[in-house]
Amino acid sequence: MRIKISDLLLCLSGAQYAISPVVSRHHQQVAYLSYRICEQLNVSFRERQDIYLAALVHDAGALSIREKFEIIESEPIHVNRHAFRSARLFEDFSFLKPASKIIRYHHVPWNYGEGQKYRDEDVPIGSHIIHLADRTCLKLNFKKNVLSQVPEVLDDIRLQSGFLFSPELVQAMMDLKEIEYIWLDLAAEHPVRNMMGDVLHSADLGIDDIVSIAQIFSRIIDFRSKSTSRHSAGVAKTAEKIAEIMGFSPNECKKMRVAGYLHDLGKLVIRDEILEKPGKLAPEEYCEMKSHTYNTFQLLSLIPQFQEINAWASYHHERLDGSGYPFHLKGEGLPLGSRIVAVADVFTALKEDRPYRKGMDDDAAKKVLWDMAVGGALDAKVISVLFDHYELLNQLRRQTQREAEVQYKEFWGNEAV
Ligand SMILES: [Fe+2]
Ligand SMILES: [Fe+2]
Ligand SMILES: [Fe+2]
User: Which residues of the chain form CATH 1.10.3210.10?
Assistant: First the structure.
């Protein structure tokens, strides 16, 4: 299995703005416009690729929906915080190291040339390109005809030339003003699908790199709230180990880890208040929460190579007796991989502290799991594997979740920017 890094980022980062139709394509639009500005400036092929990838995930560190709206509505005082956080997410992944540096400074103002540095560090030109593309995209109202707005929006941008944006970059964008197709592409359903040629040749990733990116995305999913901060890491590890014990091949075990990391991807669309609610959810809130596996399914469907991973990940609330959701699959309709993720998910959730209850002790957790197996909801064979290797699996889960806890603290710890 090999997947283009741009396809993977496109699918996963698209989820981040699925919250609102007004901004649903923000990452794609900024990537598209940045790329067009690069072409105008004859930026080298390599750099252009990095700027494109950086733009696709530039706001990924703004985890809460509240903060996402904050940064699209204005340039808030602490605007660098989400940019630094986004950069931190990707800096350890070799393919995205240059992109990570570009992301870090994507809100640094040009400030008449002073913005070429930020605290003695060089600010890549890509950061200024993304800043310009970002602000331009946010001034356009994509619900209305976009062509009629371009002159006024670009005039507005020009007023900030020198102060916010580099005059050279502003000029490059002014040269795009009359080229209708660019603005029409920007307003289209999938702006980057309209790009031809070189961007499509971005690096192919093998399974180990896919595991790494999936892990980064598990942090974007989990780190929104303290209560979920270690969840996907625990599910991924438990599911991978159960699969290994049940005879899955090493490659399948890695795919299982990806499924574990991404099983709650659809939660990115769930509102902060629901995610963090300390008590029981009201009926309407529960309905919203229930849509998360459906969202995971739709998002992962965008990557054809993920068909199996998608089934394993998205069916984690399906139950063997048909009582689960949203597809009400039962029995044979549920592949073994999906049954494993379902067990890993329930087991991990029972052992975690939740806003409305403490994590359960081993006996109590085993009793719930056993009752679910006897009742026909969870696979009894998978549960027996869990019980037969309980000490090992629980210890691995605990260890992995401790590590995730440390990463969670590091991620939020350094906000002095
Ligand atoms: Fe931003
Ligand atoms: Fe943005
Ligand atoms: Fe879930």
Answer: 3-203, 207-413
